[in-house]
Design brief:
Layout lengths: L1 E2 L2 E2 L1 E2 L12 H14 L15 H13 L4 E5 L2 H12 L5 E5 L4 H8 L4 E5 L4 H18 L3 E6 L11 H6 L7 E5 L14 H5 L7 E5 L9 E5 L1 H8 L3 H4 L6 H16 L2 H19 L12 E6 L2 H15 L1 E2 L1 E3 L8 E6 L7 H19 L12
Parallel strand pairs: 3-12, 5-6, 5-7, 7-8, 8-9
Antiparallel strand pairs: 1-2, 4-10, 9-10, 11-14, 13-14
Length: 376
């Protein structure tokens, strides 16, 4: 991309399948905008905001993720928070992973009943919380909702879905999975992390976004017909909001059609992700626990060193990537998150690994340990 007049190699865009600039996608978006404009439909889904194409997209998504029914949401963040609010009441208990996305945390904060958090991906801690939750619902006659992610977007590790599903044999709960980073990228057909682990049928409520692999806007929630019908008439963020605009609906149908019928998009993503991760590991980089395409590079250093590292990468090596520093991570940790896509090249990978090797050497020599930002 062009960044302030300078061309840079970007590893910071969730355009996993390369849909953002695909010619068929761009044409579908443009044609739909020309036909409908951005205003249609004028109204909420329950009033005048429904269309055959909205319903078709929901049907196609239900088929893709192997669920009975689907509801579209205008924004993934808002939709996830609002769905949590709608699904539980004060009698119910929420149990959620400690590294859940902010949209989950905001949804949980609206809950008027009990909520328990378990240490990230620690199944024994989850079971302890399920025991506590079970005791509470025995008194309230409520239910338990367990919330986790398919792929955790910061660390790249997947949720332990098989282990969580196995706990259903001992405890009565519904499982809600936010698969924003898994839809389109994980599983044999790209249907997500549940498909990847063979437990899609055991996910009670499945959330996917259009903002990543689809390179669009909005999202969807898939479940049984009765759960989705309930959400249609109880999700305040959708009942009282204008419907998803027609160009987005048409464009998302085209995106879904493309990667459902052609797995080469996902294959190309994984060719780049595998090469990038293998190259970095060969140079001794710590990639944490990632088992997805998300590639965190963990270095040691403080906030000033972190600022100098990313500035040097951008200004002197023309590499643009995301920086995560204190207080999101400990004070002595620098986390650079790389997002591979199907439209990166192996040459991009080789160049980036080579540059990261130089950056690491500079960091270890103390060249970034100063308050003044490093420039050429």
């Amino acid at each position: 991309m062009m960044f302030r007049g300078k061309e840079v190699l970007v590893w910071s865009v969730n355009n996993y399948l390369g849909m953002a600039n695909h010619p068929e996608v761009r044409k579908a978006d443009a044609d739909a905008a020309a036909k409908y404009g951005l205003s249609q439909p004028m109204g909420a889904r329950m009033m005048s905001g429904n269309s055959n194409l909205h319903e078709k997209l929901e049907e196609e998504l239900s088929s893709f993720v192997s669920k009975e029914d689907t509801i579209l949401v205008n924004f993934g963040y808002q939709g996830m928070a609002s769905a949590i609010d709608a699904l539980v009441d004060r009698k119910d208990v929420i149990v959620y992973d400690s590294e859940s996305h902010a949209c989950i945390l905001d949804g949980v904060r609206m809950h008027q009943g009990k909520r328990f958090v378990y240490a990230h991906n620690e199944i024994d801690k989850l079971e302890i919380m399920l025991q506590r939750a079970t005791k509470i619902i025995g008194e309230t006659d409520g239910g338990i909702l367990v919330i986790t992610e398919g792929v955790f977007g910061m660390g790249g590790d997947t949720g332990k879905l098989p282990e969580i599903v196995a706990l259903k044999k001992k405890y009565d709960f519904r499982l809600f999975v936010d698969d924003a980073h898994g839809i389109g990228t994980m599983g044999e057909t790209g249907a997500g992390t549940g498909e990847h682990y063979g437990v899609q049928d055991d996910i009670d409520i499945y959330f996917g976004t259009f903002a990543k692999a689809f390179a669009s806007i909005g999202g969807f929630i898939s479940s049984t017909e009765n759960v989705v019908d309930y959400l249609r008439y109880n999700m305040r963020s959708q009942i009282f909001a204008k419907s998803l605009p027609m160009p987005l609906v048409v464009g998302n149908l085209k995106r879904l059609e493309l990667f459902r019928n052609d797995t080469s998009f996902k294959d190309d993503l994984w060719k780049i992700a595998d090469a990038l991760q293998a190259g970095l590991k060969a140079e001794g980089f710590n990639l944490g626990e990632t088992d997805s395409q998300v590639t965190p590079v963990i270095l040691r250093g403080g906030p000033f060193e972190a600022a100098n590292v990313v500035t040097d990468l951008r200004e002197n090596y023309a590499i643009f990537c995301s920086l995560v520093t204190y207080p999101v991570v400990p004070k002595d940790v620098i986390l650079l998150r790389l997002i591979p896509t199907a439209v990166h090249t192996l040459e991009d990978v080789d160049y980036t690994v080579g540059v990261f090797k130089k950056i690491k050497a500079k960091l270890e020599r103390g060249e970034y340990d100063k308050e003044k930002v490093v420039f050429a």
